[in-house]
Design brief:
By secondary structure, this protein is α+β, with helices and mostly antiparallel strands. The chain has one domain (6-245). The chain is built from seven helices and five strands, in the order ααβαββαααβαβ. The protein has helices at 6-20, 26-52, 72-85, 107-130, 139-168, 176-194, 212-222; strands at 60-67, 89-95, 98-106, 199-200, 244-245. Helix 2 crosses helix 6 (176-194) and helix 3 (72-85) packs parallel to helix 5. 41% of the residues are buried.
Length: 248
Amino acid sequence: MAEIPERKLELVRKLLAVAEHPGTDPTEAAVYLEKAYAVMAAYGIEQAMLANAGLVADEVSDLTVTVGNPYQADRRALLAGVASALRCRAIYWRSGRESVVRVVGFGSDLAVVELLFTSLCLQMGSGVLRVRAPEGGATVSFRKSWMAGFVHRVCERLGEAERRAAADSPSGGRSAELVLVDRRAEVSRVYEELFPRVRRAGRRRLRDWSGWEDGRAAGDRADLEDARVGSRKPSGSIEGEPGDRIPR
């Protein structure tokens, strides 16, 4: 897997450390996250364009992440959403009480997925512990709906940010958008060769939506742009798992 250059990685780590700290004001955290993600997005687009020109080697590879409790399904959903926003594909299987998630993508994208997932996982985990269910509500179901809203909004915004970064990328030949389309297609080709027989994971259903809006608001604060988009709640269910699952 391609590695992010050490100087760039150190900068991103410092920015994320401030954003992740429980004492950081949410508005200030959003500013630091915006800077961190700008560095990572630019790196990903730069590597894609250099690889397309034959100036660097950036091959399709894979990343394996073990996800345990608590809130295992919600953390799997976060990993799968981040992977998809960064042109990767994820699959999981159960191993005892844990989930093994395998992410397939170009090496430069996998490096960003790993770094960003680790940071967002910390933010989601600390954020959900600070919220309280409405009076008379169940804490567990409230927290699950909060995390669903967080994941939905974060991944929504990551996709938007990636598209903006591609549109803003200078190009002397093929556009970044076309290069990224080809890379996503190549990832899908390799993925389907590796996992020719998988089934789609079922859609998770939430009985309690009480934490959804608060979770989306936290996802906005965890994201990296100033624009705010109107809240949208899916009708009845959300995609809460990585897209594919190896049957057991």
